[in-house]
Amino acid sequence: MAIRLLQPHTLFSSSASSSWFPRTLCFFSSSSSSFDDCPPGRENNVTIDTNDDSDGKLPKMEPSNDADLLSQVLIHHHNPFHATESSLQLHGISLTPSLLHQTLLRLHHNSKIAFSLFQYSLSLPPSTIVTSTAYNLIIDILSKVRQFDVVWQLIIHMDQRNVQPTFLTFSILIRRLIAAGLTRQAVRAFDDMGSFIPEALDETHFCFLLDTLCKYGCVKVAVEIFNQRKCGFRPNVRMYTILIYGWCKVGRIDMAERFLREMGERGIEPNIVTYNVLLNGICRRAKLQPEGRLERVITLAENVFDEMRCRGIEPDVTSFSIVLHVYSRAHMPQLTLDKLNLMKERGICPTVATYTSVIKCLCSCGRIGDAEELLGEMVRNGVSPSAATYNCFFKEYKGRKNADSALKLYRKMREGDLCPPSVHTYNILLGMFMKLNRMEIVEEIWDDLKASSLGPYLDSYTTLIHGLCEKQKWKEACQLFVEMIERGLLPRKVTFETLYRGLIQSDMLRTWRRLKKKLDEESITFGSEFQNYHLKPYRR
């Protein structure tokens, strides 16, 4: 693929984009409602698979030199303050569906550039370049930064171009709406889905809605929807398991047990997943202090084991791993190892999550030698460690200020000898080396993160900016602050305040004003959220 840079033509000119697209992306303003009462949450370790994959999934990133080159050219030559303009002209490029998909995947943390590329691709012949997969990818990218108004226009545009929206299209939108706390809009999107997708809504689709609500802590909304619509969607074991999971996630074990009893009253038999979800709720969210609570949690867990066996359901590796994790949380390394050995004696092969839980306990208790020995056993048994496994070591190295061991392990991961680092890995290391004032290593890790497909995202920028502020490196902190804004990431209010106060105390009010001016130029991108970020005058 030949790519030439020609000045001063524009690749993303307004004529190249469809007329109905807005030139500036604006956030969908959230309205208060009875449904919008739950904060965004994170998924628990025990999850319920509600997708039958009949509509497929988003493609994964694959090696592609052309996509790497195209994405880097777009990133480095895009003007962030003119959303659909660039001083770049691509000549001699054959944009195929596959190349478009892989490039969008590489631009998933640059929503403005990704959307500009998508707009440009709509103007290219043949029209088959932009497939439903391309629409799904850009919908995922825009939903992640809450551009829900544009997403709805894209879905309508799909229908107008005879590109069939699928369940995957709406599952992306619904999940992102719920993650943003917009549950009413998510339920409305679920209802509207029937007018767009070819198949009729059934229990699988309904389970997805309930599951997503519960995963983000909106179990009350999920129960309300379940009660309203259980006449249209016949209740089954999966639905009840999802609701039990939701109650466990918010710490209401009493309600989880109530729904378990209701299952039996309806003649619906719980399965191993149902009991593991309940077991997970009892063990993982329980407080283990003061003394005596650990024994109470273990007793409750054993009662669940007994009930399982009474129903003819044998505990599996997940069941044992959940209980083992309780000992790990209680910092009881020997009991954790004993439970692991008991699993092996019963012929139950530990999983990566099981090993990681034990390694985490050993590392947090300072037994890093035993943790390394268990890591070796894990590999010998054919269980590949995950980034979460190695993060246990990084956290211990951080606590010990053992920079050499952390750097050695990180470089092994980066060079491909081990699994690649996760975003959390990068954040741990950035915080560690920032505190140790190893700025050359911080720069190396930051460059690696930017070159990867993982980000950087809000947490990474926040970690670095706050670290730079602590060291009074105002120039570098301001540069990163602007870079965040250019990427469409709204900094947290505490970051605004930290930078603002630091600049004022350092007699750099003029610098803050220039920074604020740039932020105001992009304020429309952040919509109503930005209104809460106006700062009160600070007096030294």
TrEMBL record:
Repeat: is it a keyword of this entry?
A: yes
Gene3D superfamilies reported for this sequence: Tetratricopeptide repeat domain (1.25.40.10)
PPR repeat segments? 131-165, 236-270, 316-350, 351-385, 386-420, 422-456, 457-491
Instruction: Report the sequence similarity comment from the record.
Output: Belongs to the PPR family. P subfamily.
Q: Where is this region: Disordered?
A: 35-58
Any idea which UniProt keywords this protein has? Repeat
- The record lists the organism as Rhizophora mucronata (Asiatic mangrove)
Which protein is depicted?
Answer: Pentatricopeptide repeat-containing protein
So which domain of life are we looking at?
Eukaryota
